[in-house]
Design brief:
mainly alpha
Length: 124
Amino acid sequence: MHDSEALENLLDKKEGQDQSFYADSAYRSEAIEKSLSKKNIESQIHEKGYRGRPLTKRQQQRNRKKSKVRSRTISWKNFLVSTQMNLSMFVIPSLIILFISLSIVSYQAVKAALGNQVEALRSE
């Protein structure tokens, strides 16, 4: 699934804040433009060129301007939007590490207690 298919769920309009949506030309469609305008989000999606109808110089300049902003923000925004973290991501690995550590220490303690202490002292 391409991001543009799940875009509606990713857009979040907060009251009293001006927002812009920066994206490459793969996101340009009438449905996405309508969705953005419905949520009062300014579209900064790159314009597309078509076969036989390339982009004008002005459109290319606008795309370059949008790219400068987009390249600075897109990597962090995508990571933050697409990554959902919860407590289990930290608790479960911590419990596994604790279990392994206690198992190793317990094994060594039992091995030392049941072993021959004279042999242990002689080798040191």
